[in-house]
Amino acid sequence: MWARNPRQIKIALGVALLVILVMAFAFGAYYGKKAALEHYGDLGIVNNQLVAALNTANAEIDALRNSVAEFKLSSDVDRLAAEKVRGELRDLNNTIAELEEAVAFYKGVMDPDKNKRGLSIASFDVFASDSDVNAFRYKVVVVQLAGNHRLLKGTAALRVIGTQAGQLVSFPLSQLSDDVKSEKIKLRFKYFQEISGEMQLPEDFIPERVNITATSLGKHATTVEQKYDWIVQES
What is the four-CA torsion angle of 53, 57, 60, 65, rounded to 10 degrees? Predict the structure, then answer.
């Protein structure tokens, strides 16, 4: 039985989240280096280990949700601490959501739906900068959904669309970010690749949305596109 103390539940959630993120990092590093591949040998063994880790994380989510429900119904909560308790519960639910999102992401990459295979743009996030109202941090995640992952090569492009002096305009990421030198960003990965950095928008430019395209090279070359509204996330 899980303890009703919110601090203990938060510690358990933190450990669970740390485990899955460490597994994910090791997962990517393992398949990103030929030397590591030769060292461990069998891809199936690592896949099975990751499946086991994901199943364990899902079981922990269910148990933690039950603990949160019990804590909400507890009659021992001091009324004077009600606001603090609500804050604790918000933190717990946010951590659960993060853990579920991580599990869903890595499970989707490793064992995708048969109707959702190939190159895919998984997400785009933009975060405000503390130092400049026109500066932002961005992160794009591109994935390969496949049963048998092979090295994928290709390019990606991102354009920020909005208004400037009353006119609709768009800027390629290479004009906004010193982290990108070309409009076409090179892709080279087996499972997923993160494209991240900082961008500086013109002072009179009002961003509205972002268009992202990704193209794979080779025999089964394909191009995918995603459009995202310009929604700034909390840092």
Answer: -170
**What are the DSSP E strand ranges found in the chain?**
118-128, 135-145, 152-164, 167-172, 185-189, 192-200, 205-216, 223-229, 232-233
Label residue 26 exposed, middle or buried (CB < 10 Å: 0-12, 13-18, 19+): middle
Where are the chain's structural domains? 6-110, 118-233
CA distances 226 to 132, 171, 211, Å, are 28, 16, 6
Residue 49's φ and ψ, nearest 5 degrees, are: -65, -40
Give the closest residue to 64 by CA, choosing from 149, 3, 143, 140: 3
For the segment 4-14, what is each residue's pLDDT rounded down to a tens digit?
Answer: 455 555 555 55
Q: What is the pTM of this model?
A: 0.57
164, 170 in Cβ contact below 8 A? no
Share of the chain above pLDDT 70, in %: 55
**Backbone dihedral region for residue 166 (phi beyond 0: left; psi -120 to 50: alpha; all else: beta):** left
Q: State the Cα–Cα distance between residues 235 and 148, nearest whole angstrom.
A: 36
**Block residue for tokens 């485990």:** 19
- Report the pLDDT averaged over residues 81-89: 68
Homologous superfamily of 118-233 in CATH? G protein-activated inward rectifier potassium channel 1 (2.60.40.1400)
Residue 103 burial (C-beta neighbours within 10 Å; 0-12, 13-18, 19+): buried
Cβ neighbours of residue 146 under 8 Å, at least 6 residues apart? Answer: 112, 117, 118
The Cα–Cα gap between 58 and 143 comes to 22
Q: Which residue has the tokens 């030198």?
A: 181
